[in-house]
Every structure is written in C-alpha cells, then in structure tokens.
C-alpha cells in the first residue's frame, strides 16, 4: 500500500491514474522476459532450440547474424562452422533467459529473443558484454550486426561491440573475406 503522507503521497492522491500507469509499466517489464529454459539444440550460430515451461521453441537471436552453415542457396560461409561450435560450447544444455523486443516471432515462426546467460540486473554495457549471448557473439567475432526494425533495442551497443571485434581482428574479422566488407 502506498502512503499518502509526504510529497509522493500528495502526488498520488491527486493523480490516481499514476498507480495504474506504474502497474502497467511493471507488467510490461515482466513480460519482456520469459522465465527461460534449457538449450536443447543448436541449429547454427544464431539459432537455437530452447525447452521452456510451455514446450520447445526455436529461437533466432535478435540483432546478430553468424555465417551460414547450410544455407539452401549460399551453402556454407567462412567461419560458419566455428560460430556454430562456439554457440554449442557456450549454450548447449545450459539454462538461458529470453528477453523480447517489439516483435516476438519472425516470418518463419521462430521466437525472436536476446539470450541471457544470467538474468540482467542493471542492463549496463558491462552487464550486456558479460551476460548477453548475442553481444558475446559480436564481441568475440562470431557474428555481425544485423537488425530488423522495430527490434533494435540494443543496436548502439551491438555496433560498438562489432567495431571492437573488427579493430582487434577477432574471429571472422581475421579473415580477408569479412575484412573487405564495409
């Protein structure tokens, strides 16, 4: 129960709609995260299967693109196998937490999510670097930034991490194939 004494109490008494707004914001934040689940399979570096309390879902990581391992028209791309193996090493069998952006699914029916190794507390850049797998893929040079608006919540951080990986020739940025791309 909110106290009606003091400066805040006067504000809440005058604007009871504020409580409703705060409740709605709290609910919205709650639904931005799914309790998470366990990674049961790795399709490629940026697509995984996660067993949640409601069943198994295919999750496409938001904001990143790893090289293809078995594209129907492109075939395998350089560093695709390494990206898939890295994703397997880090995620397979592990509990993850899913954060959603504006759209929950793509045109293929895959769940779109930021995949966290631990639940974030402050959403700082340091925490994103250490706990969000999408960001780790970029920072280690296993992926490139790829955005599809309106799902762009972390695009500025992602661009910064990709620049860092590229400047330090990490992962795919150590290959002429990717360094020549601008």
Automatic annotation (TrEMBL):
Keyword Hydrolase among UniProt keywords: yes
Which InterPro entries does this chain map to? Answer: SNase_OB-fold_sf, Staphylococal_nuclease_OB-fold, Thermonucl_AS
Sorted UniProt keywords = Endonuclease, Hydrolase, Nuclease
Please, which domain of life does this record's source organism belong to? Bacteria
Is Hydrolase among this UniProt entry's keywords? Answer: yes
Which positions make up the signal peptide?
Answer: none
* Segments crossing the lipid bilayer: none
Q: Where is the TNase-like domain?
A: 33-175
PROSITE patterns, A to Z = TNASE_2, TNASE_3
Q: Name one GO molecular function term.
A: hydrolase activity
Q: What is this protein called?
A: Nuclease
UniProt organism field: Fervidobacterium thailandense
């Amino acid at each position: 129960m909110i106290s009606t004494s003091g400066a805040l109490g006067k504000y809440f008494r005058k604007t009871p709609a504020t409580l409703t707004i705060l409740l709605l914001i709290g609910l919205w934040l709650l639904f931005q995260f799914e309790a998470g689940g366990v990674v049961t399979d790795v399709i490629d570096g940026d697509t995984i299967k996660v067993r949640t309390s409601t069943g198994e879902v295919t999750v496409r990581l938001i904001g990143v693109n790893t090289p293809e391992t078995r594209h129907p028209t492109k075939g395998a791309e350089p560093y695709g196998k390494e990206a898939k193996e890295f994703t397997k090493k880090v995620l397979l069998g592990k509990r993850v937490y899913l954060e959603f952006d504006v759209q929950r699914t793509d045109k293929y029916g895959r769940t779109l999510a930021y995949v966290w190794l631990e639940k974030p507390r402050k959403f700082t850049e340091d925490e994103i670097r250490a706990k969000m797998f999408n960001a780790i893929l970029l920072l280690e040079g296993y992926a490139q930034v790829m955005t599809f608006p309106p799902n762009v919540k972390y695009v500025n951080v992602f661009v910064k991490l990709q620049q860092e990986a590229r400047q330090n020739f990490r992962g795919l940025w150590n290959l002429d194939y990717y360094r020549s791309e601008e």
